[in-house]
Task: inverse folding
């Protein structure tokens, strides 16, 4: 708010008077809840409000909202920002307007996400039983006849292949008379490795798909200001549409009337015949009545004609 310094230099006096006036306005609004709370029934009553006072209080409210936002944003720090100093408003009227803190609602944003459902731990983490693998035992020759097979969810590494090769070489040196072990196919390990790799990749894709489906973007409902703005726009569009329809109907009527007046009205033969049947005295009377009706205003001519017809009806025998 700007103040002009007069010749006597009373700028400080003007500022103090303005602050006192603002405090008086705040005290009046604080005592009457319907002046600032939109949920009250009398909030929309304009008869109990002054335009100038309402405008000034709106300015005070707007500044309080800005100061309050700075205070809230400076709170709740953690980590490296835990030692950050909380913002302290330097405005003298901040504490006087604290009763507005409950009525201030910050607008929601569309960047908030919430978890739709929790991911089962069994789909993400492998249990200990799946990680265990059974290796062949060197105590009996029957266990060495089976290939070196691990769990389906486990990928064979190069160390496993080397271990299998060392076992086979040891078995060949200890028992050279076993022809069945010498016929073990070399491609069995590569085939097993490719098979396990494909299954593991498919299970990983399934877990990734499940994870992506668990998160859903949450768009909040529009606030009261957005709803009111949309209602006003819809009402304006509806009013404009109704007016355009009325103008179209009026334009059609005016066009029809202009066409009707531009065309001459044909005189029927029945009217001419009925007029010709009157006597000369009646024709003179009708002309005198018509001459007199011309001096009567147009909106009273019909009343005069009705009165004349009523007199004529009274004398009909």
Result:
């Amino acid at each position: 708010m700007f103040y002009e310094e007069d010749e006597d230099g009373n700028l400080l006096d003007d500022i103090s008077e303005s602050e006192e006036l603002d405090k008086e306005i705040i005290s009046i609004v604080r005592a009457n809840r319907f002046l600032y709370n939109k949920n009250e029934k009398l909030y929309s009553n304009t008869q109990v409000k002054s335009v100038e006072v309402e405008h000034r209080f709106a300015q005070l409210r707007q500044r309080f909202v800005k100061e309050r936002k700075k205070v809230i944003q400076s709170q709740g720090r953690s980590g490296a920002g835990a030692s950050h100093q909380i913002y302290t408003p330097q405005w003298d009227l901040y504490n006087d307007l604290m009763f507005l803190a409950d009525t201030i609602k910050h607008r929601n944003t569309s960047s908030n996400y919430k978890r739709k459902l929790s991911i089962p731990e069994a789909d993400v983490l492998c249990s200990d039983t799946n990680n265990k693998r059974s290796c062949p035992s060197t105590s009996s020759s029957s266990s060495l006849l089976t290939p070196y097979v691990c769990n389906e969810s486990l990928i064979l590494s190069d160390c496993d292949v080397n271990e299998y090769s060392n076992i086979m070489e040891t078995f060949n040196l200890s028992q050279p008379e076993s022809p069945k072990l010498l016929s073990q196919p070399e491609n069995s390990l590569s085939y097993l490795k490719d098979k396990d790799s494909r299954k593991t990749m498919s299970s990983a894709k399934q877990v990734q798909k499940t994870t992506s489906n668990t998160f859903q973007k949450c768009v909040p409902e529009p606030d009261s200001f957005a709803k009111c703005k949309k209602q006003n726009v819809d009402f304006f569009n509806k009013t404009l549409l109704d007016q355009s329809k009325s103008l179209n109907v009026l334009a059609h009527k005016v066009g029809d009337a202009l066409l009707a007046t531009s065309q001459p009205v044909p005189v029927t033969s029945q009217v001419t015949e009925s007029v010709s049947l009157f006597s000369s005295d009646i024709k003179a009377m009708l002309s005198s009545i018509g001459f007199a009706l011309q001096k009567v205003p147009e909106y009273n001519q019909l009343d005069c004609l009705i009165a004349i017809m009523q007199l004529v009806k009274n004398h009909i025998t």
In short: Residues 1-8, 115-157, 174-184 have pLDDT under 50 and may be disordered. The beta strands are 113-115, 215-217.
